[in-house]
Amino acid sequence: MIDALPRREREVFETLCRLEAGATAEVRAALSDPLSDSAVRTMLSRLEAKGLVERVGGADGVRFRPAQAPQTVAASALRRVIDTFFAGSAASAASALLGLGQRLTPEEAAELEAMIDKAVEKKP
């Protein structure tokens, strides 16, 4: 459903996912190309009506958060990127990510190695 969102709604939704939760002003401040407060409120309300965002009351006022866990949204978005740009190959996507030049900590490398070992198809 996220793919079908208009560009600005998708940007507001992705920003909210990155923040994990936020008031209208926080979402607005985190946007790369800020909108007015009323435009952000309108988009958050539209996203809420679509079931993508929930409104949460708190001591400091109304806050919004993604209706699904950010990890679920991230997995779905990553699957779309892999399907679109890497012909469905997780290995090609991983190679591209590792090719970006960021250094891995020993812990990250060990975690990746364990995940690769688990994912490798065992042949009888």
UniProtKB/TrEMBL annotation:
A Gene Ontology molecular-function term?
A: DNA binding
Query: Which example biological process does GO assign this protein?
Result: negative regulation of DNA-templated transcription
UniProtKB keywords:
DNA-binding, Transcription, Transcription regulation
Q: Which InterPro entries does the record cross-reference, listed alphabetically?
A: BlaI_family (IPR005650), WH-like_DNA-bd_sf (IPR036388), WH_DNA-bd_sf (IPR036390)
Q: Which top-level group of life is the source organism from?
A: Bacteria
Q: Which family does it belong to?
A: Belongs to the BlaI transcriptional regulatory family.
Name-wise, this protein is Putative transcriptional regulator
